[in-house]
Amino acid sequence: MVYGYIRVSTDHQTTENQRFEIKKFCEKQDLTIDCWIEETISATKDLNKRKLGRLIKRIQKDDMIIASELSRLGRNLLQIMSILHHCMDVGAKIWTIKDNYRLGSDITSKVLAFAFGLSAEIERNLISQRTKEALARLRAEGKRVGRPQGSRNESKLHGREQYISQKLADGRTKYEIARRLRVHRDTLRKFIGQRGLSASFLSPQTKTPGDHVS
Hints:
Layout: E1 2-8, H1 16-29, E2 35-40, H2 51-58, E3 64-67, H3 77-90, E4 93-96, E5 102-103, H4 107-140, H5 151-154, H6 161-169, H7 174-181, H8 185-195
Parallel strand pairs: 1-2, 1-3, 3-4
Antiparallel strand pairs: 4-5
Helix pairs in contact: 3-4, 7-8
C-alpha cells in the first residue's frame, strides 16, 4: 500500500498544494497512491489523537507513506524519529518530497533511527534527572513533596460530615466510625479537627436519638 499523507494545522489552510505535489511526484516515480490520509490538526497534538497515529499502528511491511515534507509528520525531531523507528521495525518506508528523504531499510535510515533513538533516551534521562534534582531541592528546603499523607483517604470523607457528627452524638468511638467508613482512625481524627465536627454540627432535624450505624 502506498499512502499519501496530507496535514494542515488550521481550517484556513488548503490541502490542495500538498496533494498536487504528491501526485506530481508519484507520476515521476511511477507510483500510485492507494489511500489518501488527510487531517486538519496541529502536529503538537498527541500522535494517538491523529489519523497518522492510527495509520502507523496498522502499517505493514513494504507499505510506503509519502508526504510533502518531514515536518508534516511531526513538529519535533523525537516524534518524527519515533514514527520512523516504528516504520523501520515493520519494514515500511517514508518518503518526503521537498526535503528529499527516502527513509526505509537502507543503512542511512538505520543510522538515523539509531541517532534518533539515542536522542530520545538522552532526553528522557535529562528530564528524569531534572525532576530528581528539583525534588531534592524541595526536600532540602523543608517542603513537602508528593501527595499529602492521608489525602486520598480524606477524600472518602467529603460529604459525610452529617453522618460522622451523628455517630459522635450517638457515642460511637472514632475507631468504630473510621472502621465503618474504611479509613484509618488518624485520618478520621484529622478530618474531624479540620471540619470542627461534633454533635453540635448537626441540624435539629438530624439529631435523632437512637440512630445506629448502618
